[in-house]
Amino acid sequence: MPTIVHEFDWPDRIVVGTVGQPGARTFYLQVRGGRRVVSAALEKEQSAILAEKIDEILDELMAGEGNPFSIQATTPVELVDNEPLEMPVDEQFRTGAIGLGWDPATAQVVIEAYPLVVVDEADIELSEDGDGVEAIVVEPEEMLLVRMPVGTARAFAKRTREIVGAGRPLCPRCGDPMDPEGHDCVFPEA
């Protein structure tokens, strides 16, 4: 069966947002184009790394000789999006693998999100390359493909960093998240 591709070439909106209270939040990558909305669940760490890597790509391009793509160092104010996720959040899939790239033809950042795949041994299909090496081949049922312009990518990364950082405060001694009910620190106060 061919992979279903939820494709957004110039999304009206792309954000990471959460549902739930700090310590029990679910992170979502949500994309809207017209009336179509797709939400894919992410781990907090995936969200943080995605924002970090988008900024790295844009910073590298900006530092390139002549900056041929007019990459901005900051987020354009008109693209800042502090609105909550569009409700109700209908989870399309839980994200496993994420691909990130740059399309120089359109000067856009490209995100590919694939569902988390749990493989049953009965479903494994082996493929052998020319060197006699076998590999497991798992064709995803669906994927999210988003292409976004530079300003939108900067705004996306900024918001995502803020969302990730808005969780529970970290213990100044051990760095673990602290719950409102208390915290059993591995480094007791002196």
Features:
single chain, 190 residues, alpha+beta, seven-stranded mixed beta sheet, two-stranded antiparallel ribbon
Q: Explain this structure to me?
A:
With 190 residues, this protein is an alpha+beta fold. It is built from two helices and nine strands. The strands form two sheets. A seven-stranded mixed beta sheet has the order 1-9-6-5-4-3-2. A two-stranded antiparallel sheet has the order 7-8. Strand 4 (36-42), helix 1 (44-63) and strand 5 (91-103) form a beta-alpha-beta unit. The mean pLDDT is 88.
What's this, in brief?
By secondary structure, this protein is α+β, with helices and mostly antiparallel strands.
Quantity of strands, as a count: 9
- Our count of helices gives 2
How is the largest sheet built, in terms of strand order?
1-9-6-5-4-3-2
CATH topology: Secreted effector protein pipB2 fold
Strand content: 25-35%
The CATH class turns out to be Alpha Beta
> What sort of overall outline do the alpha carbons produce when their principal axes are compared?
globular
Q: Main sheet, how many strands, which sense, barrel?
A: 7 strands, mixed
Question: What does the radius of gyration come to?
Answer: 20 Å
The overall number of domains is 1
Calculate the terminal CA-CA distance, rounded to whole Å.
Answer: 62 Å
Order of helices and strands: EEEEHEEEEEH
Broad structural category: alpha+beta
Q: What helical percentage do the residues reach?
A: 10-25%
Unreliable runs, pLDDT <50, ≥5 residues?
A: none
CATH architecture: 2-Layer Sandwich
- Roughly what is the average pLDDT, rounded to an integer? 88
